[in-house]
Amino acid sequence: MKVGIVGTGYVGLVTGVSLAEKGHEVLCLDVDRARVDMVNRGVPPFFEPGLEEALGRVVSSGNLRASDSYGDLAGFEVVLICVNTPSAADGSMDSSQLVSAAASVGDVLGDMKKSVGFPVVAVKSTVLPGTTLGVVRNTLESVSGMVAGVDFGLAMVPEFLREGSALEDARRPDRVVVGAFDRRSGDVLSSLYGDFGSPVVVTDAVTAEMVKYVANSFLATKISFANEMARICDRVGADVYRVMDIVAMDRRIERSFLNAGPGFGGSCFPKDVRALARFAEENNVRPLILRSVLEINESQPVYVVDVLEKVLGGLRNRRVAVLGLSFKGGTDDVRESRAFPIVRELKKRGANVVCYDPAAGKNFAEKEPVDLAEDIKSALEGADACVIQSDWDEFRSLQPGDFRVMKTPVVYDTRRVLGFESGEVTVLRVGGGIPGIKRDTHDGGAL
To answer: Ramachandran region of residue 304, left (φ > 0), alpha (ψ -120 to 50) or beta?
Structure first.
């Protein structure tokens, strides 16, 4: 098929590449000419493992190109809208980019209809229930003068991509959800995704919109639950990771996303939980769990600093190295990264902070002034403590000898990436017990 993609961010470009790899002709649209030029050179405008090589291949093959002109959509059968829907100041969903994209598509729907008969527009951005059949449909119809379900198709197809493994997720999705307004749209999109070898679930648009928010909110809930349990484990001397390993042996409980750490960040979980909570309140539902999930997540970085301060006996004038500034390893995305509140809290308590990240240093420093080190050794040199904030593979290979350049080798490994236990290096772990509190350790012997 000929597929237009509106937006060249994580969702848009990764989706476009995965479709182009299946032999579809893909046109990526973006209002930013610099991003368009980069894509046409085979260079992604952001870091994502494996994406540059894959993009280069589909651009070279002619299966994918980019443009800043919506007029180029004439002759295309499907348009996927993949623009940002960030949080507004009150936590609600900001739909301004979505409306703008829908209006631009509406401008060319007539030309598309003349060429293909029944073009299909699908929203892939994360949007609240009622958005696709509400503001998106209204905008498309008012601008084009056409009728959804009669002159053009309309659907919602949520994405389930994880940054750092987005390309693999796009190539092998657990499921494809098609929230179709009309039967023909459901058939077209089912055919488009039929080659991916994954279940295609066709439902209504509101259900598809809700699925995305429920999935992200549930995963965020698991993380906040694990972090609350970690705080209790710290007090009683248990290891929350070991606890969760045993708990998850119950086949009713799935182990993933039950790892305690500094909290969740990124472009999805924080904004989606906030938006759903706000949406619930606007519909007279008290989102008690969602609000608690957010409260725990906001307080977790402060808890990390509290523990470090307790162990060091104070943070004023202490040099603290923070390793990892992206919200997770394998990406340069710093949106909602827990490094921001950790760094700010360390500064607030008088610490001298130096940071290092393999890819996200520049992006982080543009939002938070920090002393950036060129490498791990430079960051650790002379430090009183180190906080490992994100799970880059580069940090997993660190050994005790790498920390000898520190003044006092105290390392708070918030992501459990280090492969060694405390020895010459004092290793702290979220939910792994706080030094000074006696741990009752049992290794499986007689109790």
So the answer is: alpha
**How many other C-beta atoms lie within 10 A of the C-beta of residue 60?**
10
Token duo for residue 140: 């498309």
Q: Would you mind telling me the total number of residues written for the chain in this entry?
A: 447
Q: What is the rounded CA–CA span in Å between residue 399 and residue 192?
A: 48
Q: Are 215 and 254 in contact (CB under 8 A)?
A: no
d(CA 371, CA 119): 51
Long-range CB contacts (within 8 A, 24+) of 348-353: 349/305, 349/309, 349/315, 349/316, 350/315, 350/316, 350/317, 350/318, 351/315, 351/316, 351/317, 351/318, 351/319, 351/320, 352/317, 352/318, 352/319, 352/320, 353/320, 353/321, 353/322
CB 240 within 8 A of CB 228: no
DSSP-derived 3-state class of residue 321: strand
Whether the CB-CB separation of 181 and 133 falls below 8 Å is answered with yes
The DSSP-derived string for 80-92 is: EE-----B-TTSS
Q: Residue 243: in which H helix or E strand, if any?
A: helix 240-247
Which residues make beta-bridge pairs with 80? 5, 122
**What is the 8-class DSSP label of residue 134?**
I
* pLDDT score for 441: 46
Q: Which residues are catalytic?
A: 268
What is the per-residue pLDDT across 179-227, written as a single tens digit (0 to 9) for each?
999 999 999 999 999 999 999 999 999 999 999 999 999 999 999 999 9
pLDDT in tens, 84-94: 999 888 989 99
Q: What are the per-10-residue average pLDDT scores of the chain (447 residues)?
A: 96 97 97 96 94 97 97 96 92 94 97 96 97 98 97 97 92 97 97 94 98 97 98 94 97 95 94 96 97 98 96 96 96 96 98 97 96 97 97 95 96 95 88 66 38
Q: Which residues contact 111 (CB under 8 A, 6 or more apart)?
A: 71, 73, 74
Token pair recorded at residue 396: 């997993």
Instruction: Sketch out the chain's domains with CATH numbers.
Output: 2-203 (3.40.50.720), 215-428 (3.40.50.720)
Question: Among 328, 209, 318, which residue's Cα sits nearest to residue 267?
Answer: 328
SS3 assignment, position 260:
coil
164, 328 contact by CB (below 8 A)? yes
